[in-house]
Every structure is written in C-alpha cells, then in structure tokens.
Amino acid sequence: TLKPVSGYTNYNHLSVRSAAAVILDRLLSCKI
Question: Can you give the pTM of this predicted structure?
Fold first, then answer.
C-alpha cells in the first residue's frame, strides 16, 4: 500500500511544481 501513496504524492508534487512555475512565469511577464 506504500507504493500507490508515494506515487500519488509524487504526482501531486509534480503538479504543484508545474502550477507554481506557470504562476511565477505569469507574474514575471506582468512585471516586465
């Protein structure tokens, strides 16, 4: 049962990173 949980958290972590990258990119483009 540990594998599905770690896989889910890893997938969620990647989603959060990609979302944060998009938000930061938009903020930087707005400032410029």
Answer: 0.54
